[in-house]
């Protein structure tokens, strides 16, 4: 029997990651939420701004929320200039991140295809490709035949209910291994002196005279000169402790994996119209995202009919998947804004900062938002790349509406 | 797939319903009199509690009526359903 | 070794005598074998002496059959025939004649051709769903069913009995499995009972929504009927669920515990008793509890020599010890297995006293392991139930739950010593059935006759051993499928990880095909050992659906191809098909796109259709436009609030175009409003938005303005509509409707008339989406085809499709919502200031026009573009820049092309675009980057054809 060792080429983890820290009484910066964004922010606070008296507070196990649950797609081919700004900054950081963190992240620039299934899809896609090019983002429009060249198992026949009329392709896009990314940031930040404090849930924010002074936690009060929220689906709850209300709704979002399969799928395929996004991870499992539950919920568990719908959409595009098996499904809680773009910046409470509303697309932004959010927290002023994502855009109406050309912003 | 007790039809699968977000958010009496901040609050800001939440549902594949429910967003348990215009019932 | 019966020579050398069933031929790893009906692939392979079934993923080590059910961690196979299916456990593949399979080295392989099988789904409701047809489940189902409850009993195996299938236990004096078969057959005969075999309950969701997958034809192999769904998803809503899911035996981490020949003790017992297969010839047993003794004795009875039993405990159950002594089986108490050895499979087992000391090597080809039993709590946990650690059992058992679900029998730890006791499980199941009845509102019978079980020896406490300590943990496997060893777990904890979830991710333990059914608790145990804490403090990782893998195709069911989303067609569809129309998907509708004649490409067909509409007469099937009847004394008030313009002033008999916005001021939909009576309007919507607009109206009516007396009804499918367009449309209509006065004065623009058209009762509207003289003739959809055929009868009317419609309207600067808008466009942006009422105090969206961003002058406006070269067609989606040479990125975009066509009427190409401050740029030259070129264009008004509107009256 020929010996194949799928995944045997996966890199080893370091022998030392981080030591769980006991909370100190006070920090310069307390980051609420030990997910990818919180950890990246801690790292760049330390590295770019020399701020190392920092604690990352995580209510469960580090990076156990959406960071552990997403489908790891990385791309920057967004429609609006503001979005491209921060996502492309992130992608450029991704391209040097393994070296920067000294940790193998399985960052694989295998390209992302976004399929079009209607004439309007085609118009929207071409519009996005052209916008991307003006912004210096690699983007191509592919005919159905070119789609099939990039991903031979896509069914481009007319038998599909909504046939593939083409697709956009970003060659520099791809995937990475989510846990490795989280651990890479955690290790690098911990090495610079940041405290990783797990099983420490924030239960209150101390606000005096309009200024935040610390946090209440299940492991006691912790004083802080600045508090940076990075709590994803729980942002509304945490910000509410300081009386800050956010235009967020929290919804379950599901994903699933198959068994390990011989390589069939060389890229990442996303389809908004029939709602599929799928890639094949390094060991060979198909990783697929499902739709978001309509109703608000903090249950890290979605409804089953969403998965069934997802599978019928997947088989429309990839009939060869018919006898693959769903091994595991799971859900995360995503915080969604009215314009499907994030909120990153200041709050009405002094020294309290917010980073939330990434909805279904937070993973790909991890280094970019960490970089910009660290700048915002360190200087008290938004970084130019996150300035468009201020909370007050909802008052002026200057939204960054990514619904238009990408109803699914994964 | 929740089992949602439509006050008109009885318990039905969630897939028959359309979700309408927070209940009891009235259209402002006089939008022109509102500041931009107040108008933005009406347009974009909705409660997002972890716990009991009064929300709207429409039984789109059934009686097509809108109604309200009090559901715990931490457990998905529905504590009460009531018709539009009725006050939110007191729930545990 | 002398006393054991030699395996039969020839076919199936390890098959016990007395096995019955049809002989089936199969091929594995390129070799032909025979098995028996009722075999799994695993039992058939064992019967043939095939020990190494697969090779491990990372280390390439040979792996054999470890278990006898879905918990199998090792024997992964690929099915080749009758149809390729990746990665199944040999223990769950029912043997069928002609089966071809191969052992897997880690990755499965997808078929390279379409799956011909059918899949479907059904909904079912019941009072009590019982999961698992073992002793507890059958008892629970019997109690519930006999009291009249609607019961579903689901079991993953082909036959009922659960654990009884693997043992020699008796009930009512006969084999337990016979009792199970009788009892379940009797249940199945009851009218309100449904017994689902080969049906695995894979998911337990909120409100007792339970998903099961039934495998209906796999066991038939190539003989499976094509018209029967291969797999069926059961969507069950149960008032009460009883989980009688039993337990999985777990193993212990010791050196070489992955070698073929190492097997769970209970599994070996099942092979011997149920499949009548001997998994080896000479066995050593390694146990932490009493259950392995029964296995050892059954195997000894079947002819396997039991060389020794190494029991980690000092004090095993006395009765068991006595029985062993009676059989001459050496019992080594206080002993552990320190290593399994052999080349490619077990040939010897090293045992030593637990505290160390001299090791002893025992020759054996089989090592039976029992590290205790873990209740199957997956579904209980999925249902939101908490788990608690049971000290006696050394495992997690069901705790609290919000849902109407309970576990019964060993699934909730009944028995407690590491193996279930039959009588206790029967009683517990019956009790669960009684509780389910009470909870579901049924009268609970006073007592129920349970079968009498044989005597069971008193049990001694189990001891919980996770690993056999050693200096070297490189071959102490924790997760066999992922090749995770104790050494790797220790590396993870050494790296600072203290959470089982982190260790799982660091090592990948528990993430394989078996999802850690045998290894999950073991991993926790080893982590606890490493951290020096109790396993109860660590807990488990989360149990996630599905319980066992489910094929994508089963979940997709019938919702594929044309059933993926409903296909909607108009009454005239067949005519369009017959005339060779190409179709465009618009929402769920199939709309004719254009009607190419022989030799025509799309461009020439559309130019011809356009010319016909502008110069002659043409017709389009416009039936797909959404149509809503808005009726009631307050109908006009509702429309005034939802449209930006005034509708209450519309006169009966007249028609007005209207735009709706969302509260944020962005255009949501547009269409015409026809006033049929003081209290009755017919509203049209865009094709794709019909349902959304109706929902929108209902939402406002019901939730904000319940005081308004209005009813809204979708009548989209009640009407068929023909748009008759062009300078000659009046004469064609006059001929078709001799009773209708069609002159301008009698039938002016934006009015409607009821008339008989081609002998059909019709409502004719004088509206135009092309700028030409035009009529929309509406008839009952039953007569749609008749009307269309009548219009087409003379042969002078040119049929046209959506593409021509788009060109015609674009020439006139009429926007298409969703094409020239994207959810960020206001009516003012579209140059429709005129449609935004200044008189109305409020309407939905009005307040937002006063916000800073919606009132800024450099918003994108809808304008026309004329490429300087009239032959150049701009791509839709092209952007616009100010400079004739592109600077380095990022280059600010001024806007983009929303619509672009060749115009027969203009004799050139043109486009519509949303351009920043566009109305102030009219006359300016801009550039559209297209490929490597920058195409110069001139900004114009968005109305390019007949700006005076001279043509609409013909």
Mean pLDDT across every amino acid position of chain C: 95
Structural class of chain C: alpha+beta
Strand content of chain B: 35-45%
First-residue to last-residue Cα separation of chain B: 23 Å
Average residue pLDDT of chain B: 96
Spatial arrangement of strands, main beta sheet of chain B: 3-4-5-6
Any low-confidence stretches of chain B, pLDDT <50, length ≥5? none
Radius of gyration of chain C: 38 Å
How many separate domains of chain B? 1
Radius of gyration of chain B: 14 Å
Net shape of chain C: elongated
Compute the number of helices of chain C: 20
Subcellular location (chain A): Cytoplasm
InterPro entries (chain A): FAD-dep_OxRdtase (IPR006076), FAD/NAD-bd_sf (IPR036188), Rhodanese-like_dom (IPR001763), SoxB (IPR006278)
Main location (chain A): cytoplasm
GO molecular function (chain A): nucleotide binding; sarcosine oxidase activity
Explained architecture:
- The complex is a heterotrimer of chains A (410), B (92) and C (954).
- Chain A is α/β, with parallel strands linked by helices and 410 residues long.
- Chain A has helices at 36-49, 81-101, 119-134, 144-150, 178-191, 235-240, 304-317, 362-379, 393-396, and strands at 26-32, 54-57, 73-74, 112-116, 140-142, 166-170, 174-175, 195-197, 202-208, 211-217, 222-229, 249-260, 268-271, 276-280, 285-292, 325-336, 343-346, 352-356.
- Helices cover 28% and strands 25% of the residues of chain A.
- Chain A starts with 25 loop residues before the first strand and ends in a 14-residue tail after the last helix.
- The model of chain A is unreliable at 405-410 (pLDDT under 50).
- Chain B is mainly beta.
- Helices cover 10% and strands 36% of the residues of chain B.
- In chain B, a hairpin with a 3-residue loop joins strand 1 (3-6) and strand 2.
- The longest helix of chain B is centred in the middle third of the chain and has 9 residues, at 36-44.
- The model of chain B has no long low-confidence stretch (mean pLDDT 96).
- In chain C, helix 4 (265-273) packs parallel to helix 5 (291-302).
- In chain C, strand 1 (23-28) and strand 2 (31-36) form a beta hairpin.
- Chain C has 954 residues and is of the alpha+beta class.
């Amino acid at each position: 029997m020929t010996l194949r060792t799928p995944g045997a080429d996966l890199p080893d983890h370091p022998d030392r990651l981080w030591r769980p820290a006991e909370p100190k009484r006070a920090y310069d910066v307390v980051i609420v939420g030990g997910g990818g964004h919180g950890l990246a922010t801690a790292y760049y606070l330390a590295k770019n701004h020399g701020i190392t008296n920092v604690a990352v507070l995580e209510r469960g196990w580090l990076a156990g929320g959406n960071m552990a649950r997403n489908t790891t797609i990385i791309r920057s081919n967004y429609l609006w200039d503001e979005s491209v700004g921060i996502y492309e900054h992130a992608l450029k950081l991704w391209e040097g991140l393994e070296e920067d963190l000294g940790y193998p992240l399985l960052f694989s620039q295998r390209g992302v295809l976004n399929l079009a299934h209607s004439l309007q899809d085609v118009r929207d896609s071409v519009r996005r490709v052209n916008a991307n090019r003006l912004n210096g983002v690699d983007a191509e429009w592919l005919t159905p035949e070119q789609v099939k060249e990039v991903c031979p198992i896509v069914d481009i026949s007319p038998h599909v209910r909504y046939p593939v009329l083409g697709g956009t392709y970003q060659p520099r896009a791809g995937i990475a291994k989510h846990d490795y990314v989280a651990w890479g940031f955690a290790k690098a930040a911990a090495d610079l002196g940041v405290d990783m404090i797990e099983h420490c849930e924030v239960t209150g924010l101390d606000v005096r005279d309009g200024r935040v002074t610390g946090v209440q936690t299940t492991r006691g009060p912790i004083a802080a000169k600045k508090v940076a929220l990075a709590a994803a689906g729980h942002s509304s709850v945490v910000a509410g402790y300081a009386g800050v209300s956010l235009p967020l709704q929290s919804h379950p979002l599901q994903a699933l994996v198959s068994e390990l399969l011989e390589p069939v799928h060389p890229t990442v395929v996303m389809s908004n119209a029939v709602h599929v996004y799928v890639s094949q991870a390094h060991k060979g499992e198909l990783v697929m995202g499902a739709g978001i539950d309509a109703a608000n919920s903090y249950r890290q568990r979605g409804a089953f009919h969403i998965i069934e719908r997802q599978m019928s959409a997947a088989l429309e595009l990839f009939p060869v998947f018919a006898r693959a098996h769903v091994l595991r499904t799971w859900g995360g809680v995503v915080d969604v804004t009215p314009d499907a773009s994030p909120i990153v910046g200041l709050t009405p409470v002094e020294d309290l900062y917010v980073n939330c509303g990434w909805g279904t697309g937070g993973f790909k932004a991890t280094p970019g938002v960490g970089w910009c959010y660290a700048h915002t927290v360190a200087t008290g002023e938004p970084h130019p790349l996150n300035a468009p994502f201020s909370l007050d855009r909802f008052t002026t109406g200057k939204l960054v509406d990514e619904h238009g050309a990408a109803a699914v912003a994964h | 797939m929740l089992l949602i007790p439509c006050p008109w039809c009885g318990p039905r699968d969630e897939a028959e319903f359309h979700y309408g977000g927070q209940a009891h958010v009235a259209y402002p009496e006089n939008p022109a009199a509102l500041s931009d901040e107040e108008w933005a609050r009406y347009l974009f800001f909705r409660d997002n509690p972890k716990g009991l939440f009064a929300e709207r549902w429409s039984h789109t594949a059934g009686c097509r009526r809108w109604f309200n429910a009090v559901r715990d967003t931490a457990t998905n348990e529905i504590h009460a359903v009531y018709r539009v215009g009725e006050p939110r019932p007191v729930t545990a | 070794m002398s006393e054991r019966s030699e395996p039969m020579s020839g076919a199936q050398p390890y098959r016990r005598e007395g096995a019955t069933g049809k002989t089936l031929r199969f091929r594995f790893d390129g070799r032909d074998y025979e098995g028996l009906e009722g075999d799994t692939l695993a039992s058939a392979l064992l019967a043939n002496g095939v020990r190494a079934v697969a090779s491990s993923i990372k280390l390439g080590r040979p792996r054999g059959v470890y278990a006898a059910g879905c918990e199998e961690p090792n024997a992964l196979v690929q099915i080749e025939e009758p149809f390729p299916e990746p990665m199944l456990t040999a223990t769950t593949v029912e043997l069928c004649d002609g089966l071809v399979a191969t052992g897997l080295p880690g990755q499965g392989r997808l078929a390279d051709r379409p799956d011909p099988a059918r899949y479907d789904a059904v909904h079912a409701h019941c009072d009590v769903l019982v999961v698992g047809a073992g002793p507890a489940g059958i008892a629970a189902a019997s109690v519930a069913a006999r009291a009249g409850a609607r019961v579903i009993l689901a079991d993953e195996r082909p036959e009922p009995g659960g654990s009884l299938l693997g043992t020699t236990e008796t009930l009512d004096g006969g084999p337990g499995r016979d009792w199970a078969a009788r009892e379940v057959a009797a249940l199945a005969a009851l009218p309100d009972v449904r017994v689902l075999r080969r049906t695995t309950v894979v998911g337990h969701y909120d409100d007792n929504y339970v998903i099961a997958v039934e495998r209906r034809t796999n066991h038939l192999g190539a003989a499976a009927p094509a018209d029967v769904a291969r797999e069926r998803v059961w969507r069950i809503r149960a008032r009460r669920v009883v989980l009688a899911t039993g337990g999985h035996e777990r193993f212990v981490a010791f050196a070489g515990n992955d070698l073929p020949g190492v097997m769970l003790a209970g599994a070996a017992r099942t092979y011997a008793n149920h499949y009548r297969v001997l998994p080896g010839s000479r066995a050593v047993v390694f146990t932490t509890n009493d259950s392995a003794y029964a296995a050892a004795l059954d195997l000894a009875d079947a002819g396997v020599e039991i060389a020794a039993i190494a029991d980690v405990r000092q004090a095993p159950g006395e009765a068991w010890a006595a029985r062993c002594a009676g059989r001459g089986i050496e019992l080594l108490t206080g002993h552990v297995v320190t290593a399994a050895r052999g080349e490619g499979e077990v040939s010897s087992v090293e045992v030593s006293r637990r505290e160390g000391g001299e090791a002893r090597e025992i020759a054996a080809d089989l090592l039976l392991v029992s590290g205790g039993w873990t209740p199957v709590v997956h579904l209980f946990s999925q249902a939101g139930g908490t788990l608690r650690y049971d000290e006696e059992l050394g495992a997690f058992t069901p705790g609290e739950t919000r849902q109407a679900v309970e576990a019964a029998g060993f699934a909730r730890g009944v028995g407690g010593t590491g193996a279930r006791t039959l009588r206790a499980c029967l009683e517990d199941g019956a009790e669960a059935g009684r509780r389910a009845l009470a909870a579901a509102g049924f009268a609970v019978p006073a007592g129920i006759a349970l079968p009498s079980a044989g005597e069971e020896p008193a049990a001694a406490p189990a001891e919980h051993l996770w690993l056999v300590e050693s200096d070297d943990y490189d071959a102490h496997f924790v997760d066999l499928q992922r090749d995770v060893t104790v050494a790797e777990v220790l590396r993870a904890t050494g790296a600072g990880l203290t959470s089982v979830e982190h260790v799982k991710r660091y090592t990948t333990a528990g993430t394989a095909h078996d999802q850690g059914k045998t290894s999950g608790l073991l991993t926790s145990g080893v982590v606890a050992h490493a951290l020096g804490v109790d396993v109860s403090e660590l807990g488990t990782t989360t149990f996630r659906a599905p319980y066992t893998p489910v094929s994508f195709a089963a979940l997709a069911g019938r919702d594929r191809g044309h059933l993926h989303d409903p296909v909607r067609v108009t009454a005239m569809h067949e005519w369009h098909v017959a005339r060779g129309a190409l179709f465009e998907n618009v929402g769920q509708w199939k709309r004719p796109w254009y009607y190419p004649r022989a030799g025509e490409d799309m461009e020439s067909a559309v130019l011809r259709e356009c010319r016909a509409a502008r110069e002659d007469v043409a017709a389009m099937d416009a039936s797909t436009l959404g149509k809503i009847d808005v009726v009631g004394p307050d109908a006009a008030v509702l429309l005034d609030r939802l449209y930006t313009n005034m509708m209450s002033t519309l006169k009966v008999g007249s028609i007005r175009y209207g735009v709706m916005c969302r509260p944020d001021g962005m255009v949501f939909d547009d269409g015409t409003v026809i006033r049929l009576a003081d209290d009755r309007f017919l509203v049209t919507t865009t094709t794709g938005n019909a349902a959304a607009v109706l929902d929108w109206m209902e939402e406002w009516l019901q939730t904000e303005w319940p005081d308004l007396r209005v009813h809204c009804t979708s009548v989209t499918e009640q009407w068929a509509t023909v748009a008759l367009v062009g300078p000659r449309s009046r004469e064609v209509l006059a001929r078709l409707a001799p009773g209708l006065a069609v002159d301008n004065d009698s039938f002016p623009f934006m009015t409607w008339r009821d008339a008989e058209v081609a002998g059909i009762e019709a409502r004719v509207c004088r509206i135009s989406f092309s700028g030409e003289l035009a009529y929309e003739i509406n008839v009952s959809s039953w007569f749609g085809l008749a009307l269309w055929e009548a219009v087409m009868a003379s042969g002078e009317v040119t049929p046209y499709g959506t593409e021509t419609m788009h060109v015609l309207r674009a020439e006139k600067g009429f926007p298409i919502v969703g094409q020239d808008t994207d959810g960020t466009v206001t009516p003012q942006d579209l140059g429709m200031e005129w449609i935004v009422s200044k008189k109305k105090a409020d309407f939905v969206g009005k307040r937002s026009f006063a916000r800073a961003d919606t009132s800024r002058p450099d918003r994108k406006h809808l304008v026309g573009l004329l490429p300087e070269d009239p032959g150049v067609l701009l791509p839709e989606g092209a952007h616009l820049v100010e400079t004739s040479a592109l600077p380095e990125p990022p280059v600010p975009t001024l806007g983009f092309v929303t619509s672009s066509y060749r115009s027969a009427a203009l004799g050139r190409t043109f486009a519509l675009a949303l351009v920043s401050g566009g109305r102030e740029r009219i006359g300016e030259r801009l550039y559209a980057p297209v490929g490597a070129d920058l195409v110069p264009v001139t900004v114009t008004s968005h109305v390019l054809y007949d700006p005076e509107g001279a043509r609409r009256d013909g």
